[in-house]
Amino acid sequence: MLYLREKYPDSMIINLDKLTYAADLRHLAPLAGDANYQFVQGDITDAMLVDQLVARADAIVHFAAESHVDRSIADPGVFAMTNVVGTQVLLEAARRHGIKRYLQVSTDEVYGSLGATGYFTEQTPLAPNSPYSASKASADLFVRAYYETFGLPVVITRCSNNYGRFQHDEKLIPTLIRKALRDESLPIYGDGLNVRDWLHVEDHCRAIDLVLHQGRLGEVYNVGGHNEWTNIEIAKLILRELGKPESLISYVEDRLGHDRRYAIDPTKLHDELGWTPTWTFATGIVQVIQYFVERYRT
Ligand SMILES: NC(=O)c1ccc[n+]([C@@H]2O[C@H](COP(=O)([O-])OP(=O)(O)OC[C@H]3O[C@@H](n4cnc5c(N)ncnc54)[C@H](O)[C@@H]3O)[C@@H](O)[C@H]2O)c1
Q1: Which residues line ligand 1 (CB under 6 A)?
Q2: Which residues are designated catalytic?
Q3: Looking at the chain, which terminus has fewer C-beta neighbours within 10 angstroms, N or C?
Q4: What CATH code is carried by the domain that includes residue 99?
């Protein structure tokens, strides 16, 4: 939202958000009083509300989701409802109102898990392993179907793990920073060798912007910066930055269905739309650690 506003100061932005536990409107305080910004508290599964809002829009960027894998294991139903039914409600409204562009914000998790080598490309078959990734993959299939069946002008992005300011406390990097600051043990699943491909959230936003405006209709674009880290390496890096001992690390029972490795091949996005990440991890992680140190101090 903040990225959009800065890049397109004159565009009208309507932000529909249910304000679940994951939301924090304080992050959007800079938009207060902006005549070209409207916040609507509501649910994307509410077809009447969505219809009214989409009638006033020419593009939809669909971010809203249940996104935490552990929660999807504890309660898969809400993931099916928001991520699958919610997406279909948006697609239907987009179709009815002849929307010019619909962008689905998806995830690399729809591809399942990699072995020690290789990358996810846009041709990698969908093989989701958690209720979260299954719900996102299902949503992607609905998006594809609306393109094939109704000719809806859709594009899909599939991004790797994001890190950045404003991220919810429950995500891995904020959790590790918070626990380290409090000298609590840092819980690491299994052997800690699961690999994630970390991308700064602002680079994800730039990719979404490019694909929204220039992506070929009906296409999927993978987003990732070739920045693979094991979870244990991330924990050690954070401890080092904060001057805390590695003895704070504690291994806990592995997550059910825990994907071993994600790694994105972003060649298509680079070659077609000229995208490359602007943040190095070395700079980005320091910015983020400083941000959370401030946040957890206050
Ligand atoms: N965070 C990542 O690493 C990452 C990586 C790739 C893709 N994505 C995708 O990006 C999107 C945003 O991810 P995030 O990490 O910011 O998620 P998040 O869980 O932190 O935030 C989700 C937002 O969606 C809203 N929401 C939830 N259910 C809703 C509903 N039924 N109706 C309206 N609003 C609802 C919440 O209130 C919240 O503001 C998701 O679609 C996610 O799958 C995230």
Answers
A1: 16-20, 22-23, 43-45, 63-67, 82, 86, 105, 107, 136, 159, 161-162, 168
A2: 108-109, 132
A3: C
A4: 3.40.50.720
